[in-house]
Amino acid sequence: MSGRSVPLSVILVSAGSKGNRLLFRYPYQEESEKEVVQKNRKHNVFAQQVPEDNPNDCRPTSSIKHGKLVGYSDEILAHILTTGTGLCDHRFELTIDDVKFVGHPTPIVAGGRKIKGQDGSSRREGRTMAMFNVVFVLHASADPSVVGCYHDLSKRLVVALKHEERRCGYLSHQAVIMMSAHDEVAAMPEDAEESPFYIMLMKSKLCTDLREVFMGLCEKGVCHVFINHWIEVSFCLPHKVHNVDQMFTIEPKIIEQSLLAIRPYHAILLLEDDKELLASLPRDCSPSIRRAITMSSPLKSLQQLSQDTDLALSQVFQIVGHLVYWGKATIFYPICGSNVYILSPRAPTSVTSPYHEEFHELTGGGNLTEALSAFSQPNLFSDVVNIGEKQNEAEKVKILMWLLQKRLLIQLHTYVFLMIPTDQPVKLLDQPNKASGSSPMSAASLDKLSATGVLNMSMDSDELSTSLDSYSTLSLDNEGHSHSRQKVMDMLKENLNETERHCVMNVPAARNPEDLKLFARLCQYFRGRHHLEEIMYYENVNRSQVYMLLEKFKQVLVICTHQDAATVAYKQFL
After folding, report:
1. Residue 541 in 3-state DSSP?
2. Residues 424-478 pLDDT 10s
3. At a CB cut-off of 8 Å and minimum separation 6, what does 178 contact?
4. What does residue 512 show for φ and ψ, rounded to 5 degrees?
5. What is the 3-state secondary structure (H, E, C) of 416-467?
6. Could you please report the per-residue DSSP string of 262-280?
């Protein structure tokens, strides 16, 4: 995917009263030595021409060679990439064989810029250009989301150029420079011929901007240019930005899903040095972004960051989302001793990995293999002793941050599922509670769980009736807040179906009013969609309370561990 997201070429074309023109292309094709010799060789007009190509050679041809567009002359590209004014201001997409051309043709209104003559009089310079198009050449097999990103970039560039053309005739002036380069090359002797595009790069600001855009997309997936030193154009190609060391590729839709899953209890982890990140920000960047970056910490939740920076939580979310999308940061749960980490299945564990030398420099002689071995199995951070000095917690946190930045570790969270015993009538399971939004497990799945010993509870109907009758006489009270029996039953009824309620009431711990009240309060989270940290945050309960509840109701509760859906790499490990 990452190779298919890199552009093959960027092309600037125009159309007008002087015909269709290819103004600039990068990378430009340089003639090979053999082609130059054949071009300069004098041919005898009376000699018989023998074709060099074998007519029986039916090998498939390709327009891509060494990652560049080949086989298309400037004249052909000028004709196929320009459109009539009626097709302007619409998405342009053309696929020929194994390449795809993507752009956004834009018309230029009639008129021209005002110029002053030598006598001081002013006149309007007529335009010879009617439309222009900035086209990116991609692989024909590029993902539709990649194509959409390049169309968006093309549209941003043409809008900026159109604005500058209206303001000061910038595009027309640059087009004159480009065409003069063609004339200059045409006047050169044949043995001294060089590419006109090389001359353009020496004289045209627009050409150097387009080259910078192309190189930025190929190298890092980002570009940042000022058209005519005035209009800023910034762009991020997530397919390239989030392709971390070729370990995996993250689709933009996955990033968008992760941004929607950001919660106040999450923290932000910068993926590069904060000083370098601040230096890379635009000069007119909002002070709020600088303040959020400066005061961020992997030990600090977004809610706490909001309080420390005196910014609204929604504004912090926007800043964090922006940094995550541009590959400058990632979202995770704040570092603490109770966090569970494990080695990433995509981590490069080879001794030849460049991470070994980087880790050695970071720790002043540490061994990366030994550090990673501490997380070969899920392990509490507080129990890890193979990284850093045992007494230096700051050093351990620093090393852990580096391992997380390099995606060598992933954090696991505990999720809770409500499971009913297998000896209940299956027909009752066909009527799930609509409010809970969950569907019951099949009888085969439940039998499998029962065989493993997860579910081993039996229930007698008479005993259940006695339990419900005795519960009706209980009075529930929690820290001065009176809760009636009816309110607890309503919470259970809202989130559980009839069979599930019967199974819960048959658990011995349900006879304790306090335990049942806490269960009824938390049962909405027992569908495997919320991990313990999220439950603790939203319900203001501590970890020991949740663990005790899980132990008391272990007959109907099953736990599992996996990553948080807010991490951008989540889908890659399923």
Report:
1. coil
2. 443 333 333 333 333 333 434 334 333 333 333 333 334 433 334 444 434 444 4
3. 23, 24, 196, 200, 204, 207
4. -90, 115
5. EEECCCCCCCHHHHHCCCCCCCCCCCCHHHHHHHHHCCCCCCCCCHHHHHHH
6. --TT-EEEESS-HHHHHHH
